[in-house]
């Protein structure tokens, strides 16, 4: 065949598809609406209007406000999973690993605190959100356990052992950040420093 007549393969575009951009706009709008008017008050009409689409188009992507918020939590949880994996697999010494993990955690609370507070608040009412949040906590508990063991805390799940200490450390950080993020970025940073100090003490590094 004459090479001049051979069709040139089309290059697959790496640009986001229109549907992906629209879904991103929907989730970004829902995140803004968590601040004002808040989850209980916001409606599907509010979300559609903020995303620049019709209600009919919105229902093509999500069947309810709960579905939108579940997808929003899932998006944020993916970032949290990356951070928990990074903490668990950080090759640095335990002190540095703890400091890095706390800095990363504070950063995501600063950026997505509204979503994370909503995930905590809505977990009892929306089972899918509760499952996502519980899975995320489990990953962080595993990461904390690994760091504690590397710091010399005995392996195991009995009192005084890494597996027993990790869950309380995780929930301490979650609850402390939850309250601090409602106050101000400065309060969140101060809380992060306090949680870091407590984690270092538990690890025997302070």
Shape: elongated
Largest sheet: none
In N-to-C order, the SSE pattern is: HHHHHHHH
Number of domains: 2
The N- and C-terminal alpha carbons lie at a distance of 75 Å
Question: Strands, helices and their partners?
Answer:
Blueprint: H1 18-33, H2 44-51, H3 55-61, H4 65-88, H5 94-122, H6 127-150, H7 162-181, H8 185-202
Could you provide a short overview of the structure?
With 206 residues, the chain is mostly helical. Helices cover 71% and strands 0% of the residues. Helix 4 packs antiparallel against helix 5 (94-122) and helix 5 (94-122) runs antiparallel to helix 6.
Walk me through the structure.
There is one protein chain. By secondary structure, the chain is an all-alpha fold. The chain folds into two domains: 16-63, Arc Repressor Mutant, subunit A; 73-202, Tetracycline Repressor, domain 2 (Orthogonal Bundle), CATH 1.10.357. It has helices spanning 18-33, 44-51, 55-61, 65-88, 94-122, 127-150, 162-181, 185-202. Helix 5 runs antiparallel to helix 6, helix 5 (94-122) crosses helix 8 (185-202) and helix 6 (127-150) packs across helix 7. The N and C termini lie far apart (75 Å). Residues 1-13 have low confidence and may be disordered.
